């Protein structure tokens, strides 16, 4: 099927077989970042003024956010350039709503926090996997600030019922930092809605710090500065000012999505990605540094990156991946092409993503011949002498599993991807783009 045009409508079955290939050459324009897209949509909705969001990611996750904002009474208009969001000045018009968020953590967690201080009655639910993803640490933190949130199923997990809060932020709000950075992101974005001075104290080590940096920098674009200490353990929110913006915001290309094409270039030749560059606010831009450690050649500019294969085999690495949790999955696939055993550490957050990614990655890597050791927060991968052809890869309704394992075909073996349409979560035309660069 590769070498031909692949469109989602061409994927009629529950499987997609990628034939053996050996070369990757070309250029890809990236879709917008999921993390930036959903943060920007919510901040624009909470602001005074109208914001045109350009290069918004078109995916299941952003669709769930857009649907929810409309149900909350936010006026959205399609424009020739993107989506025009008419802000509600921090006060959602609809005070009663039932929201379905699918498996979109970047929509579920921030909306939970924002609605906790919106003086309304709301229920939030998702697909069965979302109801298995913990949210207790965020709810506990919001309750410290006076939020009225009930669990409608298992304690500590969605679905949730939210009622008007009795806001009290006179004491520091404590939140654990070692489960998901989305909890802190949600709390940071919501606290300005209280119109009171507040402080946040992070308990334990903060994981995925670059994602918090995205949040803080986007809040600043919407008129809210968030002072914090050098260790990112204490944050301050002022009663004034409020969210405000009028104009255009261009969403950067998705740095996590860039990782698959950069990896393809490292395995099979040379690939350029456009839409994200050396000045990106996304932490996954540092994936390129890991590629350099493995022996690849990387070139940067303001709005593009290019990765080329080394002269010989890639080198195995032992890397703390706290700063690139999503892109680190792609390194697990590159380990198949490296000499020696690759160890990816500090990836406990993989356990609470769209699936348990450590367990899933270990299971599927073994199908292609790798020797894998998994721990609570690490994975070790030793490549086989020869990749196993015709492996059938389960994707666990996880877009990143599907995109990662497409790269195995560059090792000269056919591979079958189950449920390929799971990529709709962030990159609906991924396989078409992948087909355009491989031979």
Q: How would you describe the overall organization of this protein?
A:
The chain has 439 residues and is of the alpha/beta class. Helix content is 28%, strand content 23%. The chain has twelve helices and 24 strands. The chain has helices at 34-46, 60-71, 105-116, 136-144, 181-190, 209-221, 255-268, 287-293, 328-334, 357-367, 399-406, 430-435; strands spanning 15-18, 24-29, 50-54, 75-78, 82-86, 96-100, 121-125, 148-151, 160-163, 173-176, 198-203, 234-237, 247-250, 269-274, 297-300, 304-308, 314-315, 318-320, 338-339, 342-345, 371-374, 378-382, 391-393, 415-418. The strands form seven sheets. A four-stranded mixed beta sheet has the order 2-14-16-15, covered by helices on one side. It has a four-stranded mixed beta sheet with strand order 4-5-3-13, covered by helices on one side. Strands 6-7-9-8 form a four-stranded mixed beta sheet. A hairpin with a 3-residue loop joins strand 21 and strand 22. Helix 1 packs parallel to helix 2 (60-71), helix 1 (34-46) packs parallel to helix 3 (105-116) and helix 2 packs parallel to helix 3. The longest helix has 14 residues, at 255-268. The protein starts with 14 loop residues before the first strand and ends with a helix.
């Amino acid at each position: 099927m590769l070498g031909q045009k692949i469109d989602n409508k061409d994927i009629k079955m529950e499987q997609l077989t990628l034939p053996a290939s050996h070369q990757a050459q070309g250029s890809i324009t990236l879709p917008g970042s999921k993390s930036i897209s959903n943060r920007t949509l919510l901040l624009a909705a909470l602001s005074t003024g109208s914001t045109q969001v350009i290069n918004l990611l078109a995916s299941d996750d952003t669709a769930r956010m857009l649907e929810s904002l409309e149900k909350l009474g936010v006026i959205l208009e399609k424009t020739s350039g993107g989506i025009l969001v008419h802000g509600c000045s921090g006060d959602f018009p609809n005070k009663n709503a039932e929201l379905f968020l699918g498996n979109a953590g970047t929509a579920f967690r921030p909306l939970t926090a924002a609605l906790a201080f919106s003086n309304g009655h709301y229920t939030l639910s998702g697909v069965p996997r979302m109801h298995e993803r913990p949210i207790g640490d965020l709810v506990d933190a919001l309750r410290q600030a006076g939020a009225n949130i009930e669990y409608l199923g298992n304690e500590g997990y969605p679905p949730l019922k939210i009622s008007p809060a009795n806001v009290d932020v006179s004491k520091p709000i404590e939140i654990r930092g070692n489960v998901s950075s989305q909890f802190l992101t949600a709390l940071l974005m919501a606290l300005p809605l209280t119109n009171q001075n507040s402080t946040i104290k992070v308990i334990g080590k903060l994981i995925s710090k670059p994602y918090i940096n995205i949040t803080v920098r986007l809040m600043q674009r919407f008129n809210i500065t968030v002072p914090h200490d050098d260790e990112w353990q204490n944050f301050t929110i002022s009663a004034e000012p409020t969210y405000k913006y009028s104009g255009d915001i261009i969403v950067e290309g998705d740095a996590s999505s860039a990782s698959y094409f950069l990896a393809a270039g490292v395995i099979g030749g040379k690939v350029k990605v456009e839409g994200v560059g050396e000045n990106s606010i996304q932490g996954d831009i540092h994936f390129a540094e890991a590629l350099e450690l493995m022996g690849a050649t990387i070139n940067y500019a303001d709005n593009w990156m290019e990765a080329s294969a080394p002269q010989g085999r890639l080198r195995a690495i032992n890397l703390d991946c706290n700063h690139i949790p999503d892109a680190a999955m792609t390194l697990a696939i590159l380990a198949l092409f490296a000499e020696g055993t690759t160890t990816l550490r500090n990836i406990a957050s993989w356990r609470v993503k769209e699936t348990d990614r450590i367990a899933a990655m270990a299971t599927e890597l073994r199908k292609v011949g790798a020797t894998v050791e998994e721990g609570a927060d690490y994975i070790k991968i030793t490549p086989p002498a020869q990749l196993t052809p015709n492996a059938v890869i389960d994707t666990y309704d996880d877009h990143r599993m599907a995109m990662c394992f497409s790269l195995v075909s560059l090792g000269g073996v056919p591979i079958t991807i189950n449920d390929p349409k799971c990529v709709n979560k962030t990159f609906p035309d991924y396989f078409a783009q992948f087909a355009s660069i491989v031979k």
